[in-house]
Design brief:
Layout (H helix, E strand, L loop, with lengths): L16 E7 L4 E9 L5 E9 L3 H21 L5 E9 L6 H15 L6 E5 L5 H8 L13 H19 L9 E5 L3 H12 L3 E5 L3 H10 L3 E2 L12 E4 L18 E2 L10 H9 L3 E2 L2 H4 L2 H11 L3 H25 L3 H18 L1
Parallel strand pairs: 3-4, 3-5, 6-7, 6-9, 7-8, 9-10, 10-11
Antiparallel strand pairs: 1-2, 2-4
Helix pairs in contact: 1-11, 2-3, 4-5, 4-9, 4-10, 9-10, 10-11
Bound molecules: nicotinamide-adenine-dinucleotide (NAD).
Length: about 350
């Protein structure tokens, strides 16, 4: 079940558009949040998960869609921010039932195909995207996994963040606690281990964490301990909202940088971490590699150009942290301002 605070209320006017979809035949209940289309059509993943209420699903779609707007603006991609959520009722359907569910969702999206470009997200697969695409919807990356590119971008961001915060981009001996041993977490573990970092890896699937730990000569730890482990860098690569106001005092790391969307519980947590001297690179800056990859595939770029663009995330992080240091603000504040300036400039054209 996604961790949504019940007191959060839907603010419909914080998004450009919210579309709810209900199909009686398949039982589909979905929400598409279009946060901002100043830079182009809304682009963002489709999440499949359990939510306590429809309101919780809407709030999640809105928050994630807003982060996509920032991600695309900062990565200079020609897309708006969007995200969709399909509410699960019990366990995830498989086989023909799953295909019918995603076909029904695709038919809703096909009603306004220029508005939203869907992609893979937590709980959905490339095969689901093919089903959506079969309904006449443009889908990016139905053949290629974005995760290795997301991990590559987080790795570039992490090295830049370490250079700024720890004074070295040489990760040899640096302790990195990675929460989530899934597609991105496992790939990131391999990349930083190749740099000589000491990897602490955790997952609610302990076998998965053990396998990754063994492959990188690291240590599997309890997933709940991941944010609080004795480490230099905490890399959230699983669920949202893992760092809360109450947990700031227990953190031992100096840098937080990872793939998980919406890793901080609220913007106020970024301020608390800033005061505590812990640098946070916003997730929407660090995890843009997957979005860059999907854009590159759609544009027909070769691997070399794609790799260069993904690695450029490191340069963005360096500039962001330098700017945040000189204005003594949390990096998220500076990143938000920069994105707002880009959106305003694009809106004026
Ligand atoms: P994934 O589903 O492959 O892996 C997530 C892993 O987290 C799973 O192994 C799961 O068991 C584990 N997990 C779930 N709850 C946990 C918890 N409480 N503690 C520890 N582990 C837990 O997902 P992924 O593709 O690796 O993505 C990881 C995160 O990065 C997600 O938040 C995703 O939205 C974000 N992200 C991914 C991409 C991408 O290209 N895959 C791009 C941008 C952002």
């Amino acid at each position: 079940m996604h961790d949504i605070r019940p007191q959060e209320v839907v603010d419909p006017w914080s998004s450009e558009q919210i579309i709810t979809c209900h199909d009686k035949n398949t039982g589909l209940r979905a929400v598409v949040a279009i946060d901002d289309t100043t830079l182009g059509p809304g682009f963002g993943g489709v999440r499949l998960g359990e939510y306590p209420t429809a309101q919780a699903a809407i709030v999640e779609a809105q928050r994630l869609a807003a982060a996509m707007t920032l991600k695309h603006a900062l990565a200079e991609l020609p897309y708006g921010g969007a995200k969709s959520v399909i509410m699960l009722d019990g366990s995830a359907p498989t086989g023909a039932a799953r295909e019918r569910l995603f076909a029904a969702f695709g038919q809703f999206l096909a009603r306004s195909p220029e508005l939203y470009i869907p992609g893979v997200d937590m709980g959905t697969t490339l095969a689901d995207m093919v089903t959506i695409s079969d309904q006449g919807v443009t889908v990016y990356c139905a053949e290629h996994e974005p995760s290795p590119w997301t991990a590559r971008g987080v790795h570039a961001a992490l090295r830049a963040g370490a250079a700024h915060t720890l004074g070295t981009d040489d990760l040899a001996g640096v302790r990195i606690s990675i929460q989530g041993a899934g597609s991105v977490g496992a790939a990131l573990a391999r990349l930083v281990a190749a740099d000589g970092a000491r990897v602490l890896i955790s997952d609610i699937d302990s076998d998965r964490a053990d396998r990754v730990a063994e492959s990188v000569d690291g240590l599997a730890i309890d997933p709940g301990d991941a944010p609080f482990a004795r480490c230099d860098i905490f890399a959230p690569c699983a669920i949202a909202r893992v760092v809360t106001a109450d947990s700031v005092d227990r953190l031992q790391c100096r840098l937080i940088i990872g793939a998980a969307n919406d890793a901080l519980d609220s913007p106020a947590v970024a301020d608390l971490l800033h005061v505590a001297g812990i640098t946070v690179v916003p997730d929407y800056v660090a995890n843009a590699g997957g979005a860059i990859h999907e854009h590159a595939r759609a544009m027909g770029w070769d691997e070399e150009r794609l790799a260069e663009d993904v690695d450029r995330i490191g340069e963005r992080v360096t500039r962001l942290l330098q700017s945040a240091q000189s204005s003594n603000e949390p990096p998220a504040t500076v990143a938000g301002r920069l994105a707002a300036e880009r959106l305003a400039a694009a809106g004026d054209v």
